[in-house]
Specification:
The structure is a homodimer of 302-residue chains.
Chain A: H1 4-14, E1 23-25, E2 32-35, H2 46-55, E3 63-66, H3 70-82, E4 86-91, H4 95-104, E5 108-112, H5 116-130, E6 133-134, H6 141-156, E7 163-167, H7 172-181, E8 186-192, H8 197-204, H9 217-220, H10 227-235, E9 239-243, H11 245-259, H12 265-275, E10 287-291
Parallel strand pairs in A: 2-10, 3-4, 3-6, 4-5, 7-8, 7-10, 8-9
Antiparallel strand pairs in A: 1-2
Helix pairs in contact in A: 1-2, 1-6, 1-7, 2-3, 2-6, 3-4, 6-7, 7-10, 11-12
Chain lengths: 302, 302
């Protein structure tokens, strides 16, 4: 099972390719927040993409990925920086802002009718046909180890918290964090009610499938939780909470009003657990919040 | 003349009332950037406001300020946190976002027809009538010493630059920086072409008056440079450059696209000097950019 060694190797690999993102005082009851939306392409995703592509080997056919937007932008960006060609398959739900972000990298782009699962199917067909390397958005060891570097980096920056709140979609980010931490801190998984893959899997079993919906669906909208994330969440008895779309929208407004950080709903989901009371810390418990993505739609600057 | 001692005392005074804002890797040729728009109320202005109000004494009539928006919001916020009443006079040009920001603090608010100078006149009449304490937006020692704490804080965070680019309106921020630095680093004053009070004063003399206009006018739009700023700029032979509104708008888009920092035009003005070529560093010169305000209009979240 993936652990701190894999994350440490990933951190070594991606050094200089990803940004060290800032940590600031928290709001809404959080003791501190890491602002990972300042990462290249506006989310944590380049960590996993760079780790996978640098580890390689990348075939002549380049790389292919399916994505609700953020992972696709990250793979396209990493491929472009490393001199590989990339073909990204996005579902319509990705929306024009994220599609434009991918287009700016120079990657080939196919918009697929339907949901994330349909884009993944198209990407797999492309992989079979061309021999391109598939970079999975969350359920691959290279992706997970890369995402885990955000937690390693945060601890190197002096993270001072008992508990870390992390938003979950397919589970790549939380899996990486759990792999790195190995139970040294409490991790709380936060999902929107409409994208609660982990919450559902913990209740019904790892194969539970959901229909992603709501304000965070284009970033957190996997149909089922990744196996790696599920395994680590069960191992570490992760606390899982869900928040309403309304709570997310309010947390998003609070982040903007109090810190001038404009993030997408997924980026405000972890904070929403605290501000809505879905997660209630014990007296004296220091709770840190990971802000994970800022690719809001519509793009405020058009 | 105000110097590092006054700034150090201000830093001591406002500690815990203002945020320590993050420093990140630069874009567009900058070696690093300090993101002061994460300060309370979205700009550096609370530093001067807290310094002035804590130093006091604040009379029973409370405090009064005239402001294009950011200073007014800062004075209103600081007064509210410290338990004083506040009356803020803003010109229409402040716009609905900044007016809403002031309203959220619970301060009394008067919107004045005309420009900043008209709001200042109204604030002075109110001061004469009520005995309220006037907090000048830029040309008062308490304000300048407070704003200088941003540079003291940045150096404590390990600022590693030969040169710092700072946007100038009335000159409170640059005056504080010059007072703190005392010539230890090169400071470049950056103004929009439509708000070039310092640039004009350095060419024509300290009493030169301009008609503020353009995209940055509601934050940088003083009619003349403050005397404190002018004196320090002359003493330190500050390099003064101007940038077009178009260059500012492009720098603003670049900050959003590359770092997901959505700032107002004034907040992107210092960076614009670098990205437009208005300031051209020498080979090897490390140039840091101060991002100073994020109160964009219209408010992207309504």
């Amino acid at each position: 099972m993936i652990g701190p060694d894999e994350v440490a190797r990933a951190a070594e690999r991606i050094k200089g390719h990803t940004r060290v993102t800032p940590v600031v005082a928290g709001i809404g009851g959080a003791s501190e927040m890491k602002l990972e939306q300042l990462q290249h392409t506006g989310s944590f995703k380049p960590r996993g993409a760079f780790n996978t592509l640098i580890k390689g080997p990348v075939p002549k056919g380049g790389v292919v990925a399916a994505s609700g937007g953020n992972h696709g932008a990250a793979v396209a960006y990493a491929a472009s920086r490393l001199g590989h060609s990339a073909h990204i398959f996005v579902p319509e739900i990705a929306g024009p802002s994220k599609i434009a972000l991918i287009e700016r990298t120079g990657a080939q782009l196919t918009v697929v009718q339907g949901a994330y699962a349909n884009a993944l199917e198209a990407a797999q067909a492309y992989e079979a046909e061309t021999g391109a390397m598939q970079v999975h958005a969350y359920d691959a060891e290279g992706t997970v180890a890369g995402q885990g570097t955000v937690m390693a980096e945060w601890e190197a920056q002096g993270l001072d918290a008992d508990t870390v709140l992390i938003a979950v979609g397919g589970g790549g980010l939380i899996a990486g964090a759990l792999a790195w931490l190995g139970g040294r801190r409490k991790v709380v998984a936060v999902e929107s009610e409409g994208t609660a893959t982990l919450h559902t899997a913990l209740a019904q079993g790892p194969d539970a499938v959901i229909q992603p919906q709501g304000v965070a669906a284009n970033a957190l909208g996997a149909a089922r939780i990744g196996q790696i994330a599920h395994g680590l969440a069960v191992r570490d008895k992760v606390t899982s909470v869900t928040v309403s779309d309304d709570a997310i929208t309010r947390a998003q407004a609070q982040l903007w009003q109090e810190t001038r950080q404009l993030v997408e709903p997924a980026g405000a989901t972890a904070l929403a657990a605290l501000t809505s009371g879905a997660y209630q810390p014990m007296a004296g418990e220091r709770v840190a919040v990971l802000v994970c993505g800022g690719n809001i739609a519509p793009d405020p600057l058009g």
